[in-house]
Amino acid sequence: MQPTERPETLAVLTEWAADRHGKLPALRFRSAAGGTWEEVSYEQLRERVRGFGQKLLALGVRPDDRVAILAETRPEWTYAHFAVFAAGAVVVPVYPTAGDEEVEWVIGDSGTSVVICENAAQAAKIERLRQRLPGVRHMLLITDREEGTPLEAPPEAPSQAPLEAAPEAPLEAAPEAPLNGPLETLLDRARTRAPADLATIIYTSGTTGLPKGCLLTHGNLGAVQSATLPLIQGGPGDSTYLYLPLAHLLAQLIEFTTLIEGGELCFFGGRIENVVAELAEARPTHLPSVPRLFEKVYSVVLSLAESQDGGRERFEEAVRIGVLAADGVLPPDLREAYEAADKALYGLVRQALGGRVRWALTGGAPIAPHVVDFLRACGIAVYEGYGMTESAGVISLNHPGAVRYGTVGRPIEGCEVRIADDGEVLARGEMVFPGYHADPAATRDALDGEGWLHTGDLGALDADGYLSITGRKKDLIITSGGKNLTPSLIELALQRSRFVSRAVMVGDQRPYPVALITLDAEEISGWAGREGVTLTEPPSRDPLVRALVEEVVQAANATFSRPARIRDFALLDEDFTVEDGLLTPSLKVRRRAVTERYAGLVERLYEKGEPSPEPSPETSPTAPPPAAAAP
Questions:
Q1: What DSSP string describes 550-565?
Q2: Does residue 117 share a domain with residue 97?
Q3: With bands split at pLDDT 50, 70 and 90, how would you rate the model's confidence at 251?
Q4: Domain shared by 363 and 327, yes or no
Q5: Which of 425, 445, 473 is where one domain is finished?
Q6: Total-model pTM
Q7: Percent of the chain having pLDDT more than 90?
Q8: What is the rounded distance in angstroms from the CA atom of residue 470 to the CA atom of residue 453?
Q9: Phi, psi values for residue 626, rounded to 5°
């Protein structure tokens, strides 16, 4: 297969892939009882998609009808995904963590007529809202992960119907037997979809207000595939571990690419806390992830090192030597030290991730440089990219042929990028969406008359065309003294400490900035154990913990000019979560929600005056380097 070869639309992807990859494994996942790993070949995947698609036709789904999928990442998501495409309909992903208000908005605003729910709990959510969703004609239930059997609809809800997987064995048909009935209709629908047809409406989990529905065509998504397939190393024999939510476009792009290339999608078991342990069993070659997973691996290894005398120094030296080796500049006199570190550190980390990971792809948030160095030292290449739903997921990408750490890579083929006079990143190309669903005003704000997408991100292009993202335009803080501050820069600097989970700078129209900080409970507990101290509850109110975080603040402040330094901070009792409304489903901080919830605490920080945690006198502040990010 040529690296740029792909199906014309996603509607025929599973048919196309089965013809090329046949009996190769397409999906791997734990059995319903949570025991052994099961495989589904490309031929079986085609039959399951056909089975699901025929169910949709039987329910009267027409071309361009909206079909919502409300489920965690699991193989049935993939069956339903491509079945909806094949039926000529439009996929509307819904985050399973979304509350009633967001679910009602997404399903109602999109005009969804059929909702595919994961289990009884999600079905109950739709049933609660049914009176306010008159457009919903049917609700389908997929296999419950715990029970492993189809869930039957309650008798009082005749509009529901169970959605079952297709039979294990492929449906064989004699070559001379003509296609007829629903299958022929399904295949005709799939073949007649065109690149200009709408494929999906993905509602962005905005940090303010209700999400907007991004319209994406088969051509938008195809443009990204055409540009990235030559850059991504993968194919038969490779396995991509998928735990990211398929309601998010990044996970969907991974799904599309893996199946086009003939690799295997390995689905996580459904519990996020088991991901690291599960990697050792899954043994993937490719690991797409948000930075948080890699940061936790780094923190665990560093904590183990610090439990030994001189362990931190040995750890840091091992990372330094490993980076030299990764860059191909390891001096001969360090070869023996490298081999020793490979046995004591690098090899153990690789084994913890399954022993086969060749590269990791990260996006959605900036990743700390020291975490990238740690993974590279262990022999795991890390490629950071940047994009947004409005650009069909990708604008720029580091890849094996072109990497510059600290950036989000060069713009992909077919995507133009320029920096506006005010520093905003603009993008243009076939991957850029046609607009927002039923929101012409928002579309005009996002797309100018020349087709440039205004990303809302601030950034810079270097002399070699690598893009760096330095912050969000709307998040800029202007102090009462007129200083313009980019909060993401110092927030990232604070979050590089393994003791800090989240940091939010506050300071708009204030004399100086302060910060709200949440703690990484596991790291704080581990630190207390190593130090032999007993902390008060909650740890955020313990003076020793405050002193520890004050050192973190001082270290971060040391790299910034005085107006940007955090002068005071408050430690919050609990971390932010999606459930409490302070994080989006894609784990971005809802800045306005945080500042509103903790408005009283912020006022008390300013009432105290200016205590000003400052860097030590011998430290000379420098201008902050650009921070790579991928919103």
A1: HHHHHHHHTTS-GGGS
A2: yes
A3: very high
A4: yes
A5: 473
A6: 0.87
A7: 76
A8: 18
A9: -60, 140
pLDDT digits (tens, 9 = 90+) for 92-139: 999 998 889 999 999 999 999 999 999 999 999 999 999 999 999 999
Q: The tokens of 534 are what?
A: 């007993």
Same domain? 481 vs 541: yes
CA-nearest of 133, 194, 141, 130 to 165 is 141
DSSP letters along 218-242, please? HHHHHHHHHHHTTTS---TT-EEEE
| Main-chain dihedrals φ then ψ at residue 288, nearest 5 degrees | -80, 140
Cα 462 vs. chain centroid, distance in angstroms?
Answer: 26
Q: Which residues pair with 518 in a beta bridge?
A: 502
- Which amino acid is located at 495 in the chain? Q
Contact 379, 350 (CB under 8 A): yes
Instruction: Classify 431 as helix, strand or coil.
Output: coil
Range list of H helices, 59-119: 75-86, 100-110
Closest CA to 360 of 376, 377, 382: 382
Q: Do 33 and 69 sit in the same domain of this protein? A: yes
Q: Is 137 inside a domain boundary? A: yes
Q: Where are the alpha helices (DSSP H) in 307-357?
A: 311-326, 335-341, 347-352
d(CA 263, CA 120): 32
- Same-domain status, 437 and 483: no
Question: Could you please report the per-residue DSSP string of 468-515?
Answer: EEEEEGGG-EE-TT--EE-HHHHHHHHHTSTTEEEEEEE-TTSSS-EE
Joined together, the tokens standing for residue 155 give 């008798």
Say yes or no to pLDDT of 329 above 70.
yes
Question: What amino acid is encoded at 412 in this protein?
Answer: I
Q: Is 481 inside any structural domain?
A: yes
Domain count of the fold of the chain: 3
501 with 428, same domain? no
Residues 345 and 459 placed together within one structural domain of the fold: yes
Phi then psi dihedrals of residue 552, to 5 deg: -65, -45
Residue positions counted in the chain: 631
